[in-house]
Amino acid sequence: MFSISSQNNSLTISFLSFFSRTYSIVMASSLLTSPGMIPTTGSAVVLRSVLPFGFSLPSLRLTRPYNKSSLFISCCSPVSEKPATSAIDLKPVVERWPEYIPHKLPDKNYVRVFDTTLRDGEQAPGGALTPPQKLEIARQLAKLRVDVMEVGFPGSSEEEFETVRTIAKTVGNEVDEETGYVPVICAIARSKERDIEAAWEAVKYAKRPKILIFTSTSDIHMKYKLKKTKEEVIEMAASSIRFAKSLGFIDVQLGCEDGGRSEKEFLCKILGEAIKAGATAVNVADTVGINMPEEYGELVRYLKANTPGIDDILFSVHCHNDLGVATANTIAGVCAGARQVEVTVNGIGERSGNAPLEEVVMALKCRGAYVMDGVYTRIDTRQIMATSKMVQEYTGLYVQPHKPIVGANCFVHESGVHQDGILKNRSTYEILSPEDVGVVKSQNSGIVLGKLSGRHAVKDRLKELGYELDDEKLNDIFSRFRDLTKQKKRITDADLKALVTCGDEISSEILNGANGKETSGYVPVPQISSVV
Ligand SMILES: CC(=O)SCCNC(=O)CCNC(=O)[C@H](O)C(C)(C)COP(=O)(O)OP(=O)(O)OC[C@H]1O[C@@H](n2cnc3c(N)ncnc32)[C@H](O)[C@@H]1OP(=O)(O)O
Ligand SMILES: CSCCC(=O)C(=O)O
Ligand SMILES: [Mn+2]
């Protein structure tokens, strides 16, 4: 069924199943007796093997020790019986954080997560935060294990300067003993010495300080906003980078604002000059969210292919969501070779926001191994929901129920056909494991009852409540349940009990609230909460 090969410090198990394209793998501990073996991070399972006639076969790459004597690995192929992510992903005993080298990644598939919730996210209209809130979010971002957090614009005000400095002094020095993890603390600056000095004075206390110097590169921005020529903009960017280095910054990123509307040849030129001046990373921002995924991916590919020295530094992507494709553009950038993603929690940011961290990270976790050549991040995805909730509460910017990954409806089912599928096997309609994103569910399994629900779900819920019904009785209850949904949007446990116990009369107790707040319009789903 499978073959095992060993190379260097890694073991590859290739599964030779021609019969099924769905995989559920149980491995005995005897396979994994070698000390020093754990799954590669991010996507525990790396699928690589390809059959001659195009079928994908999974292989599992193991490189360090497991803390379990036996392993149950659930992995998904393009068609899977298991959620694509799994709460029982293999966990290492102690996983050391890779050494941080600003311009270099520990391996070619590592994607660095640069969170900008506290800078671009805070720029969301109505999203301003107090200094203590920013500090608390920074601590939570560290729990989430973001590689880099961009925490503010020190040159913009005294208060912002102090806030960034406090985060640098605290969160920027809290090294996790077990893993060695400590976040990079980044500050943004315009291409102005005053901003760059303020950035240095604020973040220099962090173990790993970083600056993002931005400059506009599109004709529109250069002409109307900066009122500068191309040559002047190049000189401004290069001299700013040199100035930042002269102050003590080792990690300097140049951000090309409005890169998505910039001339490609000009971008190559300015990026090349930035690299010569000592930049360790560059980004090309789709500042106005105008690019389409193919277009943005193509831009990244072009710049990676045509900029001298680009492969010696980190290429970062920064996408806005004006046309609803920020996540897709970010992923297209990664597929084109970018290895840092600039994202915000819940996707908050200017106008329609930035690429949401949770979407990009879960897309890579869920599909990185299958369709993106094994890219992965080291985000602790179980902290996603807690982080999302904190950001919602502090900014007052609440996500819609159907927001991917963190919306209240993500693991909830109201329609009969779906409920029936979920009750038979969750993977029929869920691709993620709720626990993987920090969601715990109550015993009613994310099933809510309403107008579109079916008999299976009603019967199942009644059984949970202690009522075992024969088909005739169920049909009767179901018919009255349907009647009730004409008057109530959400049918509660109390309603169900009353339907069973009240005979033909629908009690006034049931209809209480029929016109009330709780049953009109959207009703938040109560059975989901986050695990911190
Ligand atoms: C695309 C982005 O998200 S970039 C981040 C933007 N974030 C913010 O703006 C939040 C914080 N901003 C602020 O507090 C203020 O805007 C400040 C303190 C930075 C500047 O305030 P003010 O001095 O009053 O200037 P104001 O904001 O009105 O105008 C911006 C100035 O910066 C200049 N500027 C804009 N981008 C750049 C750049 N990349 N490099 C150099 N100068 C720039 C503009 O041309 C304009 O300069 P001008 O006065 O010579 O015309
Ligand atoms: C170029 S990255 C920094 C500025 C920014 O947030 C943007 O351009 O969208
Ligand atoms: Mn932005």
TrEMBL record:
Catalytic activity: 4-methylsulfanyl-2-oxobutanoate + acetyl-CoA + H2O = 2-(2-methylsulfanyl)ethylmalate + CoA + H(+)
Compartments where located: Plastid, Chloroplast
EC number: 2.3.3.17
Gene3D superfamilies according to UniProt: 1.10.238.260, Aldolase class I
Cofactor(s), by name: Co(2+); Mn(2+)
Assembly notes: Monomer.
Its biological purpose: Determines the side chain length of aliphatic glucosinolate structures. Involved in the biosynthesis of glucosinolate derivative natural products such as 6-(methylsulfinyl)hexylisothiocyanate (6-MSITC), a compound found in wasabi with diverse health-promoting properties. Catalyzes the conversion of 4-methylsulfanyl-2-oxobutanoate (4-MTOB) into 2-(2-methylsulfanyl)ethylmalate (2-(2-MT)EM).
Family membership: Belongs to the alpha-IPM synthase/homocitrate synthase family.
Protein name: methylthioalkylmalate synthase
Source species of the chain: Eutrema salsugineum (Saltwater cress)
